[in-house]
Amino acid sequence: MITERIDNITRIPPDFRCEAPPCPPSVKIELTARCDLSCFFCATSQKLRDKRDMDWDLLVRLMREMRDAGVRELGMFYLGESLLYPRLAEAVAIAKQEIGYPYVFLTTNGRLATPDRLRALIEAGLDSLKFSFNWADAAQAREITRVDCFDTVVANIQAARDVRDEVAARTGHRCGLYASSIQYDGEQRDRMAAAVEKIAPAVDQHYWLPLYGQAGLTTGERGTVPVAGNVGRAEAMRDPLPCWALFTEGHVTWDGHLSACCFDHDGRFNMGDLTVTPFMEAWNSPHFRALRAANLARDVRGTVCDDCIAYRRHEG
Fold this sequence. Notes:
By secondary structure, the protein is an alpha/beta fold. Helices cover 35% and strands 13% of the residues. The protein has helices at residues 2-10, 56-69, 88-99, 115-124, 138-145, 150-171, 186-199, 279-283, 286-296, 309-315, and strands spanning 26-29, 73-75, 103-108, 128-132, 176-182, 205-209, 249-252, 257-259, 270-273. Strand 7 and strand 8 form a beta hairpin. It starts with a helix and ends with a helix. Mean pLDDT is 92; it is low at 311-316.
């Protein structure tokens, strides 16, 4: 199940708890920084950087280089909506069929995940597709995203299982289908639980995520109070320090920079330019090593992590 993979990445094994850990088992690569929604709880809507697509040749080169380095799990997304990338299915096919990644996964908001698009992705070899489902009804989805998308997303999720099963029967390849939702308190939590009932039969597993502060960029939006840092999923939350994202998962932006953060919407977590620097050299660059040392010491004052609400709380 997807939660087992999430927990394995967020756990930080003992041999990764060092300034220069081995090659990360998982990397998310940003095929596009663009998104078709503008959710208040995601800093993508703040437009803090250029939002373009990754150059195709760079994408293929990085996928090959990271697999050669030992990356086993490749996420075909980072902060943007990858279904906006016109060659997404082709990229999945190259990652699986040519380069040989054991596990290729994708997260989507679901609006563009039509049956035809999903069929192409699953036929290409996609191993896991997760829907981020975070609105209780059509009116709330429109208010949060500024797009009329709720019914479309629900219909796409409900159709996904039939598409998956049809491809599996024909090819023998079975893609996992999952969904996650932000776990709010009070009335919103009850409303979300009712909405999840609409999609739960169509996925293999649904799980809850805490509300993140996105490296401090969305803290306090609409009166919300996020959890401290990126602590994983709601039922298996980790300590915010040291932050697992620095140790077990790489994050590559559309322009080829290696980031130390799951939420690097403004480029402040840039640890190396992969257009000119080998992946493993950037992964263990002096800048990255110093940031890991601060995290391991649980004192990130004066580092790029200092602005995150998580670390302010722990310092206080």
